[in-house]
Design a protein that fits this description.
Rossmann fold, seven-stranded parallel β-sheet, 13 strands, about 40% helix, about 375 residues, alpha/beta, six-stranded parallel β-sheet, 12 helices
């Protein structure tokens, strides 16, 4: 069976790139054929190592050349590019004789079901259904209105696929009436041989420096506890357009000496293992890989119970703490409790590591293979 994944590129350090890398590496290691078709790779090296047996095709479209254009012009150029994208993708799939083609909801998502190449079409959603609304502050009413239109459009797109896969049980009721729906979480990115150091006075978080991660609120929460724990430090991993502003905010809050912005790193396992607490203050998530990875090394977490993901991953009071969204006071209290009590961190650490095995690659990928085999059999 030949399985094809469509994505913009594999040169970024994002969660989807990491997940696809793990999936295709697993597939070729288990006797399947796998291919990644990109639109914007443009010769750039992959961020994560991909097995040489994975076939690679880049369509040479480079949508990202329009990123700096005004919004209306970007949409116009992108819309015009899609006809070329459609033709090149259909030709590539016919040549590959793909059995399954998977979209992770990039530019091809809207037209992939229409391609007559013979493959079964699968759509993956890697974020919350209502992300197009929640990705903007509440005050940006016009953007949120367009977000609601995008959610409605997404429903129409998802209904046209042979199968549609979301990441969390929490989101399942939001897609009521979809008979082509399955819940398959992302697998862990690595099987850790390391264990978090519960004696370390080190707290961490990781992700893009963008609005959705709500790092400005995390810094405010840290400012509530930092002076009571002068030996502790917060380490923030990731890059993005908000980075300079966050650094300035740390200075203004008087916590710069206890905050380190680490940038993007490929060896996240070491970062988790050298810490003793993980923090998440996102406005929303899909299934946050960083939270799964933190658990896999036994790192207890304090997280907002945002939609969606944290409720599926964390059992409150056992392997971490779930805090009502935007309750900074309670978040700071839970964090202080963990910082103060090493015995509690140790107990939660053991529970977190056990819980993480629900997301092992060897547990999740057989679910995908069952789906692919069922779809492939139904096509005969």
């Amino acid at each position: 069976m030949k399985i094809v994944y469509c994505i913009s590129g594999m040169f970024k350090s994002g969660g989807i790139e990491r997940v696809i890398t793990n999936k295709v590496n697993y597939l070729v290691a288990h006797g399947y054929e796998a291919c990644i078709i990109t639109t914007d790779q443009a010769g750039r090296p992959d961020f994560f190592p991909i097995d040489k047996r994975v076939e690679r095709i880049d369509l040479g479209l480079n949508y990202d050349q329009y990123d700096e254009l005004p919004t209306w012009k970007r949409y116009w150029k992108t819309w015009r590019m899609r006809s070329l994208h459609r033709a090149r993708l259909e030709a590539a799939l016919k040549k590959l004789r793909a059995d399954i083609t998977v979209s992770v909801w990039r530019h091809e998502a809207g037209f992939l079901p229409d391609l007559r190449d013979g493959s079964r079409k699968v759509l993956e959603l890697h974020t919350s259904k209502f992300a197009p609304i929640r990705m903007y502050p509440a005050g940006q009413k016009l953007r949120r209105m367009f977000g609601r239109l995008r959610v409605a459009q997404q429903e129409r797109v998802a209904a046209r696929y042979d199968h549609f896969v979301i990441l969390t049980q929490e989101e399942s009721p939001m897609w009521k009436g979809f008979t082509n729906l399955s819940v398959i979480p992302n697998p862990l990115s690595f099987s850790s041989q390391k264990h978090a150091d519960m004696s370390a006075y080190r707290v961490m978080t990781a992700g893009r420096m963008e609005y959705v991660k709500n790092y400005s609120e995390l810094l405010r929460i840290w400012s509530r506890v930092a002076s009571d724990f002068p030996e502790w430090t917060l380490h923030v991993y990731g890059d993005g357009w908000m980075l300079d502003g966050l650094k300035q905010q740390a200075v203004e809050l008087g916590i710069a000496s206890q905050v380190t912005f680490e940038g993007a790193v490929s060896d996240m396992e070491t970062a988790y293992a050298s810490s003793s607490i993980y923090l998440m203050t996102s406005h929303f998530e899909g299934l946050p890989m960083v939270l799964l990875e933190a658990q896999s090394v036994g790192l207890p977490a304090v997280s907002y119970a945002c939609s969606s993901g944290p409720r599926d991953i964390i059992t409150d009071g056992e392997d971490g703490f779930l805090v009502p969204l935007y309750d900074e006071v309670t978040f700071a209290e839970r964090l202080s409790t963990l910082m103060r009590e090493e015995a509690l961190r140790t107990r939660m650490s053991k529970a977190a590591e056990v819980a993480s095995h629900r997301y092992d690659l060897e547990v999740i990928m057989p679910q995908w293979l069952e789906l692919f085999n069922t779809l492939n059999a139904s096509a005969r």
